[in-house]
Design goal:
The chain has 227 residues and is of the alpha+beta class. It has helices spanning 8-13, 67-82, 87-93, 100-110, 118-126, 142-146, 156-167, 171-190, 217-220, 223-226, and strands at 2-4, 22-26, 32-36, 42-50, 53-61. It has a 5-stranded mixed sheet. The chain is globular.
Length: 227
């Protein structure tokens, strides 16, 4: 992580250099960090310690909050910490999406349903509504596996275990699951439900050829049901 005297002109010129996330810490305000996603999104966070534990509070996107705004909000958060409050914990307590099942519902309603491939997202999350045997173990629908877990408790290890289970029979499908889960956690970060994506640095299970493709739900469904 680079520590710099950040300026708005410098931030505006920042572009992703790889498929990995980058962070730039402001030398002016302790803990203030600009996170640059692989997709180019710029998000302000402030990092601090409470009771020996490192905490991170998301302040907002650079498109909304300028450098001056971010420094002001970071100083306000640091003041709360100095007087014994934990702004990240307070923010987390106010979240209305607690579990992965809650996140899945929000993701499907507010994001996935506007995509052409929303049925595929639904199938990976909940299983096929037409054929309950479409997902055989270890292809357990993600919500059935993680549904009761708190979103913030899901770690990189959980993601790897999920992909390992799926890849034993369907490595291409494991790639698709990783893509959906990564989008969901990015969706959670955008809405301040989460600070770090547990899919970060996890690579696709297998390298795909252009012809590799997972059949759609309509293609899997028997022809007599598609009429």
């Amino acid at each position: 992580m680079a520590t710099l005297f950040l300026t708005d002109p410098f931030i505006r010129t920042l572009r992703p250099l790889s498929d990995k996330e980058a962070e730039y810490r402001d030398r002016n305000v302790k803990g203030l960090t600009l996170r640059l996603s692989a997709g180019g999104k710029k998000t302000w966070t402030v990092q601090y310690r409470v009771n020996g534990r490192t905490r991170r509070l998301t302040l907002g996107c650079y498109d909304v909050f300028s450098l001056a705004d971010a420094r002001k909000r970071a100083r306000e958060a640091l003041y709360e910490i100095a007087v014994g409050k934990d702004p990240a914990a307070d923010k987390h307590d106010a979240l209305h999406a607690e579990t992965f099942a809650d996140l899945a519902r929000e993701y499907m309603e507010r994001h996935a349903k506007f995509k052409r491939s929303w049925r595929e997202d639904r199938r990976m999350l909940y299983g096929s509504p037409h054929n309950k045997r479409t997902w055989k173990r270890p292809h357990v629908p993600i919500v059935r596996r993680w549904g009761t877990m708190k979103v913030r408790e899901i770690t990189r290890r959980h993601v790897r275990d999920l992909l390992d289970d799926i890849s034993t029979r369907a490595p291409i499908q494991a790639n698709r699951v990783l893509a959906v889960v990564r989008k969901m956690f990015n969706f959670a970060i955008e809405r301040d439900w989460l600070d770090v994506n547990p899919c970060q640095v996890i690579k696709r299970v297998v390298k795909e050829q252009a012809r590799d493709r997972v059949l759609s739900e309509d293609e899997i469904r028997p022809a007599r049901l598609r009429r």
